[in-house]
Amino acid sequence: MRQHLILRVASTLALGIGLVACAGPSPGASDGRLRVVATTTQVGAAAHEVGGDAIQLTVLLAPGADAHEFEMTPPAAAAIEKSDLILESGASLETWLTHSLVTIGGEDRLRDMSKGVTLRHPDDPSNAEEVDPHWWLSAPNASKMVENVRDALGVARPDLADGFSTRAATYLARLAAADVKIRSLMAEIPAQRRGIVTNHDALGYFMDEYGLHFVGSIFPSLDVSAEPNPAQLAALADTIKRGHVIAIFSESAVNPQLARAIADETGAHVVDTPLYTDSLGPPGSGAETLDAMLLHDAQVIHDALVAT
Prior knowledge:
By secondary structure, this protein is α/β, with parallel strands linked by helices. It has helices at 2-23, 41-51, 74-81, 95-104, 139-156, 161-187, 204-210, 230-242, 257-266, 290-306, and strands at residues 34-38, 55-59, 85-88, 110-112, 195-200, 213-219, 247-251, 269-275. It contains 10 helices and 8 strands. The strands form 2 sheets. The protein has a 4-stranded parallel beta sheet, sandwiched between helices. The chain has a 4-stranded parallel beta sheet with strand order 6-5-7-8, with helices on both faces. The chain starts with a helix and ends with a helix.
């Protein structure tokens, strides 16, 4: 519990730094730019690329922060209140935003970037009613995010729509190239090694798109709020042994301690290079954009499962 509290405080401090770093001029500056708030790093990256200098962008979550546990801060509330447009990831990820807008206002400026995406349900039958919110984890879905950002910005500022479309086309070309590369990497993984074990059930869209299959997750949910009990961990260990799983993938925003314990018991190894699932990577990580994140994750999975 103490460790969880420390991590949460650290995430809150990182959030404050992220807000300062991303906000640019204070909301409400009369420089003619469209004032945009993006909730997650993924949506923020798309808005940054598509909006360019035509928007004043505030990204609420810093790299590494958990979108499931975000708590509204005064700077975040001020940015939302003064924004022209609010872009959310959607798929029930930002429940905290829905509650906050009741007080702050701005429902009419809120746009859901998951519009048009075929959302999936988790593999765990006990969570079958939930919607998996990690929909950006495939190049086709990430492309849909870019298109939705382009359209939302263009409707808000028709006079700037041509610029938004041009920049979006460049980004979409990068994602198309990433998609080709990812499919090439996944094709090299032997069929008997395509089972994936992660810290939590976040890679469903990636696996569905690129021909991998879900074996299990350390945390038995779409986030890490529900800690596994000993019986669940024992069942997962048995599944890993029976399936001859060779690797357990860690994630950038999740403590790998339990994954290492499972690895010690089963003979699988924890892949030290983390996957980026809930968040893009920080500057210098090589996973700061949608295409770079997807390529990073694909390369990590490829290298772990192809190696003998």
